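Figure 6 in text form: structure in, sequence out.
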């Protein structure tokens, strides 16, 4: 349910930004814009990213300040549920969880980005094609992953420890994930770097309104292995493929 609400909120936010930009659109396209600002929603092969870019437009090259928050999963994560419905009722089915997971992992990316413009967008209608890129530093955040563990007659939210290792790694004793409200006061951090390269396709009649899709690859590298899963080897390097949806404005 929380994931569904999160997706609805993202869609509503994107729609509101779109309507706002249409309402504010300046039709004085004869004056070349010099700056741009856009929001990015980017599903990728190991999670989702939300980003902001503030750029300075040149003839062939746009330079930008790039900020991004991304979630990163382990490639071998598998969501599952325990229990089965009885008599058509699903009340005894657990919430979904990832077995053997120790941490949720997020990266805050901050760096330099931009676009190299291969073609200009037609004045009336067309598609502008650019090569996009960004690179910089990343601050990784590890949040302990809490499970609802069955302890006798009680169900207790706990993260992994040496004391509860056997129960934490026994699927039958798990009653689902505890939710997003746990672990934020137990964050730990790791430094790293990121780089991303893609092709950007922008369409629409106005040179002021940005509506684009960006597809490419992203590489996140950290200074140590990230302990996401307990039951397999972890990694310090996260290569991903992404498809980004961008909306914004030029001034």
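Output sequence:
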């Amino acid at each position: 349910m929380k994931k569904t609400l999160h997706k609805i909120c993202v869609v509503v936010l994107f729609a509101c930004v779109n309507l706002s930009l249409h309402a504010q659109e300046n039709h004085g396209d004869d004056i070349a814009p010099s700056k741009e600002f856009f929001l990015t929603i980017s599903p990728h092969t190991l999670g989702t990213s939300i980003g902001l870019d503030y750029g300075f437009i040149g003839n062939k090259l746009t330079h930008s300040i790039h900020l991004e928050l991304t979630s990163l999963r382990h490639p071998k994560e598998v969501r599952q549920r325990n229990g089965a419905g009885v008599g058509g009722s699903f009340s005894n089915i657990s919430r979904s969880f990832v077995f053997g997971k120790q941490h949720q992992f997020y990266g805050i990316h901050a760096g330099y980005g931009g676009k190299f413009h291969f073609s200009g967008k037609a004045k009336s209608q067309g598609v502008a094609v650019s090569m996009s890129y960004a690179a910089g530093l990343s601050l990784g955040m590890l949040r302990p992953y809490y499970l609802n563990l069955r302890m006798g007659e009680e169900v207790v939210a706990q993260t992994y420890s040496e004391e509860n290792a056997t129960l934490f790694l026994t699927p039958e004793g798990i009653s689902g994930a505890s939710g997003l409200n746990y672990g934020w006061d137990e964050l730990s951090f790791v430094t790293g770097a990121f780089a991303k390269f893609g092709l950007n396709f922008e369409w629409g009649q106005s040179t002021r309104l940005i509506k684009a899709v960006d597809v490419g690859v992203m590489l996140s590298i950290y200074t140590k292995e990230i302990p996401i899963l307990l039951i397999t080897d972890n990694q310090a390097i996260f290569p991903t493929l992404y498809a980004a949806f961008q909306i914004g404005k030029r001034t």
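Caption detail: The first helix runs from residue 2 to 24.
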